[in-house]
Structures are given as structure tokens and as C-alpha cells.
Amino acid sequence: EIVLTQSPGTLSLSPGERATLSCRASQSVSNNYLAWYQQKPGQAPRLLIYAASSGATGIPDRFSGSGSGTDFTLTISRLEPEDFAVYYCQQYGSSPRTFGQGTKVEIK
Amino acid sequence: QVQLVESGGGLVKPGGSLRLSCAASGFPFGDYFMSWIRQAPGKGLEWVSYITTGNTFYADSVRGRFTISRDTSKNSLYLQMNSLRAEDTAVYYCARDRAVHAFDIWGQGTMVTVSS
Q1: Residues of chain B contacting A51 with CB distance shorter than 8 Å
Q2: CB atoms within 10 A of CB A28
Q3: How many angstroms away from the CA of A43 is the closest CA of chain B?
């Protein structure tokens, strides 16, 4: 099983600032099948990025993903008020399809 | 529009059973893999199971107790949950599982509470 470790656990930033979230895998992610999801309280997760760096349909271009192998990054270039949420990475290149523990982006 | 709607959650005693359903609409259901994911209260996401056109896969935590299935004629996905434990308490989501595009569509979730 591939274990995903996200850091930091909590990121305190102000609107307009840049957010950088990390996801490290315990072994190489097959085909770089690494996704990022956003979840707000009481809502289902929403897909932001798939295959490490491809933006999902309708996702603003301030969200970008990068990385390969075992190290991946989600960057939010300029935080909007609606971006404060919890973010999860997930690998889906092998079974079981594991999730990271999440990073909470909160308003400073 | 493309939509997934879960149902069947509720309160069940430890050792009991429950069957969750996920109704799909707006896309050719039979062409896609589908997954179940759960989230315990205040916790992160945990993948539970997925089904392809002919195979099923399970997390170790549910293997032997949960069974995933689909009925293409009804555009529906199911999760039969047996021998339920307190630690199975969670919101259960179904999601469209695209091989390259990850879990691109999610339902709103259904709550399962296992308690005496």
C-alpha cells in the first residue's frame, strides 16, 4: 500500500497570498496518477487536479499541480476567500487507492 | 446533468447489515469504473472499494465484510455492508472512477452510524 503524507497539516495564510501544499508518497506513484481534491465543510470533495498536473474541468487556473514519482505539489497562486478549505491528495495508480491525511488552508 | 445520488444510510447496531445505493444519471454508467469512499466524523477520506467492468477491489479494513456491485440496467451502484463495526461509522460517498481522470464526479454522501 502506498502511504501519502501531506504537509503542512495546517496552512495559515491571507487572501491574495500563495499557498504551496506538499504530498509525499512512500513509493513511486504509477503513471504519476496523483490527484488533488478540495473539500469544504458539509460538502463532498471536488476534483481539482488529476495526473499530477492536469486541471479538472471548470477549475480556475490559479490552481496548479506539479511533481512526479514520490513528490507532488499543489499550488494556489493567489488565495481567494472561497479557497479556504481542506485539500487531499490521492494516488490512483495502484490498489488500494490511498488518500493523504489532508492539509487545512485557513485564514490568517 | 451528470449526477450521483446515494441512499440507504442510517443507524444500525454492531454486527448488523446495511445496503447503500448510488443512482447515476447523465452519463453512460456501464462504461465507467465506480468507487465507494468514506469519511469518519472529523476525519479524512478513506477509499473503500471500486468496481470495474468485471473486477472488484477492497480496502483491507472492509474485505470479507463489504461487497460492491452494480446493475447497469438500473444505472446503480451498491455497497452491501455486513458485520458492521463502530469504526465503520462514516459518511459514504460514491464517485465516478476514471482511470486517468481520477474521481471526477462525487455524490453528496449518505451517513452510516453503527451504534448500540
Answers
A1: 100-102
A2: 14
A3: 7
Q: Please tell me which of the candidates B46, B47, B109 has its beta carbon nearest to residue A44.
A: B109
Per-residue pLDDT tens over the stretch A32-70? 999 999 999 999 999 999 999 999 999 999 999 999 999
CA distance to A5, A65, B64, B86, per residue, from A13 (Å): 21, 19, 44, 37
Q: Does B3 touch chain A (CB under 8 A)?
A: no
Q: Which residues of B touch A47 (CB under 8 A)?
A: 101-104, 106
- Quote the CA–CA distance of A25 and A31 in Å, as a whole number: 13
Q: Which residues pair with B51 in a beta bridge?
A: B34, B56
Partner residues linked to A64 by β-bridges: A75
Q: Kindly report the nearest CA distance between residue B46 and chain A, in angstroms.
A: 7
Is residue A83 a contact partner of residue A74, using CB atoms and an 8 Å limit?
Answer: no
The alpha-helical segments, DSSP class H, found in chain A are none
Instruction: Quote the cell numbers at residue A76.
Output: 494556489
The DSSP output letter for B83 is: S
The arrangement of strands across the sheet holding B3-7 comes to B3-7, B18-25, B76-81, B66-71
Q: How far apart are CA A105 and CA A12, in angstroms?
A: 6
**% of chain B residues with pLDDT over 70:** 100
Q: A99 vs B47: CB contact, 8 Å cut-off? A: yes
- What integer is the mean pLDDT of A10-23? 97
d(CA A74, CA A80): 15
